[in-house]
Amino acid sequence: MSSTVANSLRRGLATSAKKTLTIGLIPADGIGKEVIPAARRVLEALPEGAPKFNFVHLDAGFELFQKTGVALPEETVERLRAECDGALFGAVSSPSHRVAGYSSPIVALRKKLDLYANVRPVASARGQKDGKPVDMLIIRENTECLYIKQERIETTPSGEKIAWADRRISEHASRRIGRMAFRMALARDALRQKTPEAERLWKGPPTVTIVHKSNVLSTTDGLFRETVRAVQGEDPAFEGVRVEEQLVDSMVYRMFREPHCFDVAVAPNLYGDIISDGAAALVGSLGLVPSANVGDTFVVGEPVHGSAPDIAGQGKANPVAAVRSAGLLLEHLGYTNEAARIYNAVDSVLVKGNLVTPDLGGNATTDQLTDAICRQL
């Protein structure tokens, strides 16, 4: 394996030598206050040999903004940098309408910590018999595209308003997200070689699919496409990765029709956001899908779902996405065995199917499902 790939797999090498990890917990809004404590319980339930955990409780969110006028306190960012090996973020209730002075704290956190890759695995539970087999990884560029939030309104001489939004795609951001995609494709392939072929959901060589719309946006998406493609020539190991392309609209269509055709998909920020949320439908619920915001020096695990204010405080929230996000956090910190234990425990509980939350058609509570995962560990 090349030094480039080896370095990506050994991210946080100094961290993985630690016997105690300090994890920042940022529940934020709504059901985040229920699923992040559930993820903490699962981390604490890991068996002998796993690291011990210290937890630092930190504030952020729209509810905090309503009380204090600040959505992401500087103290939260500074304590993450100074005290924590990684963090778990719950959910944020960003309103759909404009609120003066407010911007999403998770978007701000990604920028402040340079968490440039949003890594979102979407996979069928091992042993699951129904539905189409899914084992794909969506890697979303996390810092650019329309999410730079440079918007303005102009008024024409006749009084008509026109809204503009600037979109930024840079060679720098496209190159490093491309590298992440190639590295993760090789890392996933290395793990598959340890799995019996009959149990593998993905049967082909490591494959990166570049998602774009350069047939229309030839300048911005064209730069993204060309830059990611050029990454393949940077490392001899990358030559073993097959490269494919999909226009974003056909990607959505094929993802639902033929999810088994995709291994690693890499996309600009907006497309990655849309296809990763849509992909959650392939495995049954947003409550199952984890993510990790990954940079070169820090990782924040984050369930893909929102704050779900309609069920907040009722004990109905599915903790699986947060629990799997805790596994992703450990995986990127170098604790792959512990991460695998968490993934396997979750899969075992889901496959039994007798204890699931309402989003999956059951009536189990957040605590009951968390208890079952802890027992399985």
Report on the structure:
The chain is of the alpha/beta class. The protein has two domains: 8-115 and 295-377, Isopropylmalate Dehydrogenase (3-Layer(aba) Sandwich), CATH 3.40.718; 120-141 and 169-290, 3-Layer(aba) Sandwich (Isopropylmalate Dehydrogenase). It is 38% helix and 18% strand. The protein has a ten-stranded mixed beta sheet with strand order 2-1-3-12-11-4-5-10-8-9, with helices on both faces. A two-stranded antiparallel ribbon has the order 6-7. The radius of gyration is 20 Å and the shape is globular. Keywords: Magnesium, Metal-binding, NAD, Oxidoreductase. Residues 22-373 form the Isopropylmalate dehydrogenase-like domain. This is Isopropylmalate dehydrogenase-like domain-containing protein. Pfam families: Iso_dh.
Regarding CATH, which class of the largest domain?
Answer: Alpha Beta
What is the arithmetic mean of pLDDT?
A: 90
Indicate how many domains the architecture comprises: 2
Main β-sheet, in a few words? Answer: 10 strands, mixed
| CATH fold assignment of the largest domain | Isopropylmalate Dehydrogenase
Number of helices: 13
- Which residues sit in consecutive blocks of at least 5 with pLDDT less than 50? 1-14
Order of helices and strands: HHEHEHHEHEEEEHEHEHEHEEHHH
The geometry reads as: globular
Share of helical residues: 25-40%
Beta percentage is 15-25%
Give the class from helix and strand content and strand pairing: alpha/beta
CATH architecture of the largest domain, please? 3-Layer(aba) Sandwich
Question: Could you write a compact summary of the structure shown?
Answer:
The protein is α/β, with parallel strands linked by helices. It has helices at residues 3-9, 13-16, 32-44, 62-68, 74-83, 105-112, 171-192, 220-231, 248-257, 269-279, 320-332, 336-352, 366-376; strands at 20-28, 52-57, 86-91, 117-123, 135-141, 151-155, 161-165, 207-212, 242-247, 264-267, 292-294, 299-301. Its cofactor is Mg(2+).
